[in-house]
Predict the structure.
Amino acid sequence: MSRIESALGILSERFAFCQTMPLDDFLTAALSLRKSGYRPVRFRPYGDGRNLQVAAVWTRDGRPWRISSGLTADQVRQHDVRHKQDKFIPVDVAGYVTTDAAGKPADRYAGVWVDNSADLGTWLYVGITADEEGEVHNKLKDEKLIPRTLHAMIGVDGRARYCGVWGRPPGTAVTGQTFGKMDQDADLDPIRDDPAFAEIMNAGHSDRRIATVWTSDAGYEAIPVYGVDPAAHDKKCRELVAQGYRPASWSVTRTTPDAPLTTASVWHRPLVTEETKDRLAERQPRAAIALVRMGKAEEVWPLLRHSADPRLRSFIVNWLNPLGADPKLIAWYQANSKVRAWTCGSLFPNDLGLFDMLGNVNEWCQDRGDAYGKTKKGLKYDTVHRASYISPHSGRVRRGGCYLYPSDIIRSAERSGYTPELHIVYLGFRPARTYP
């Protein structure tokens, strides 16, 4: 745990990542994490002065894996042949520059393989040049394969070297591309001396190359983070973790020997369908109401907080009475009001600190009392009239229910339209003021 944290990483229950871990420490950490079911899915060594550091991502699925580093391109291909004979397929391959036994700069490569006998149609390429990349990609496309990972580096000869893993398509379109070649595009030669063009190129960090893979998979949403140093990257990544994202890919490098480290990562978060949200929201209230019936209502109040998705809160409020719990703790309604209004503030407030938003008396609202708008994906929505004229004869919305209503309609979404000239004892409004 401390080793990963000190390398500007995170070790969580389902995944882990690091950004600046020395290679030897990484290999030790990877073997230690193996015992707990963690598997490397991205293994990206990079040179940092005279040291070799590692940026890596783990998932926790307990599958057997193998890892290698310090290999030449030919050695990676030989390892891949042997691993496939043992039913291990490549997951990631990446290049980096280090020094060989003679102390000279040398291109070296690292790879990760995973046990998967059902997906042996996976292939890798390693250390190819830009001139070779097009031919290799065309051959892989002819085999009906798609890119899964892509990595680029500048080799000791000053040319870009590319590595990648391709496999059978999962039923979605996937494409791979390398960006940042404007400084090599012959069509732009006539304007290279224009100061405006130079300004655009400088702002776009033309010294950087970004190798990317896209997918049309609608099962998750993706966010890239790139172009920042590891410390800033770590802060942003912790924000993404808090939002439910998980790391999918990672790289760290220097664009020049004297430049600061710069990072790139991709984060995924599953997209949950509306039907799945409904099923989850229907299960949680049953457990919450059971807690209320057991006298542990204080554990339920946090679930009633305002949120962008009102399902859980609405289900709890609506099912308090049908499932045998007493909703009198949060609203005056038919069963507990004794057919009268009560002093505001007698029961618990909502999460915004407002009392009697449900039950007691209906609340007048500014909006006109029109019917709900057209459906969006099966959901109704309100049309808000921000600048509508208030007339005694035009209907206005009232919400929240009152002390005469049954529990199933004591909710903020329950609404109807009355004209403002109507005077009823269970219909009122909420005074408000702006502090000086």
About this structure: The chain is about 20% helix and 30% strand. The first strand starts at residue 10 and ends at 11. The first helix runs from residue 2 to 6.
